[in-house]
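Progress note, sequence design subtask.
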């Protein structure tokens, strides 16, 4: 008996390039398995696809080893942040306050 197949998209954006792949996977595949089957690991060997955070349409999936894919899902592979956004805003505000104090 032939296993039903569904189509999904897997996307990853590195600093210098982006890749979006349409992948056919067996119905009942997990998100993590679909990402591993996508071949993006070969295009980005620095990625650790077994541990990296994953999401669907901009929402992080808490347990990608359990969550099953659905037809039409766009699975996103997230890379670590280079800087903490809160820290960047704090530094920017401190710099602006310092500039304002010098101009008075």
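Output:
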């Amino acid at each position: 008996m032939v296993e039903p197949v569904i189509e999904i998209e897997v996307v990853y954006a590195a600093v210098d390039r982006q890749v979006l792949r349409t992948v056919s996977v067996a119905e009942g595949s997990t998100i993590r398995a679909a990402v591993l089957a996508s071949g993006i690991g070969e295009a980005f060997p620095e990625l650790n696809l077994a541990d990296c955070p994953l999401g669907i349409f901009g929402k992080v999936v808490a347990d990608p080893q359990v969550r099953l894919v659905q037809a039409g899902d766009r699975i996103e592979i997230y890379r670590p942040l280079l800087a903490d956004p809160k820290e960047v805003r704090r530094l920017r505000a401190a710099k602006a306050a310092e500039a304002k104090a010098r101009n008075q």
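Helices lie at 31-37, 40-43, 85-103. Work on this subtask will continue into the next period as scheduled.
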